[in-house]
Amino acid sequence: MSTRPLLKIAPIVLVVTMVGVFRSLTSLLGFPLGYLCAFAVYWVGWCGALPLAALGPRDLAGLFAEVQHGKPGRDGRVIALVAWPIAFPLIFAFLPRIPQATAPTLIMSAGLGIVTGVAEEVLWRGVYLRQFPDSRWWSTVYPSLAFGVWHTAPLSVLPSRYSGGAFAFVAYSTVLGLSYATAARRTRSIRWVAISHCIHDALGLGGFAYAIWFT
């Protein structure tokens, strides 16, 4: 049975339900525990169970395989697509905040970056590229737009600290998604975009959100 119809409506259901999950768990468990638990629901359920059901274990692992012409070093456009997302948080988040970062904050940020980067690339790039290889809309544009909008869920609990607020954050995330989707489409693998995404999120120093546990 094809999972394509499910994948077409899944982002809408994801956004609606995850807004409720973030608000409910944060209200029930407080911040930051409820916030982190809501992310766990997203990682395990949406980024884990859904891709596993859509692809199966073998195809899921195959998303990271390096295929022919898959190395970014062979394609300058791919290098640019995976490099700028690293430069952006390095300049605007990591360097300005590193003097205040403690070792636990850096460790937590690295852990969150790895989990989020891998999980989100499996869902938003890997699954849609594998299931809709012949459609640029369904494989690249639609999941990138949905990837941007999904961030309204965590933002409903923890607003963006950057200028422009939620709108700017969603717009930036959408551009990021389009960049990663284009790179993954060219390489036919999510290996390099997952690595870039992990570094991107780690450099954002998300561990500061959980600094209350370190003090």
Describe the structure concisely.
The chain is built from eight helices and no strands. The chain is mainly alpha-helical and 215 residues long. 75% of the residues lie in helices and 0% in strands.
Q: How would you describe this protein?
A:
With 215 residues, this protein is mainly α. It is 75% helix and 0% strand. It contains eight helices and no strands. It has helices at residues 4-29, 33-62, 76-97, 103-131, 136-150, 152-155, 165-187, 191-203. It is globular, with a radius of gyration of 17 Å. The termini are far apart. The model has no long low-confidence stretch (mean pLDDT 93).
Shape: globular
Assembly type: single chain
The number of helical elements comes to: 8
Q: State the end-to-end CA separation.
A: 51 Å
Strand percentage, roughly? under 5%
Question: Can you give keywords for this protein?
Answer:
215 residues; mainly alpha; 8 helices; 0% strand
Secondary structure topology:
Elements: H1 4-29, H2 33-62, H3 76-97, H4 103-131, H5 136-150, H6 152-155, H7 165-187, H8 191-203
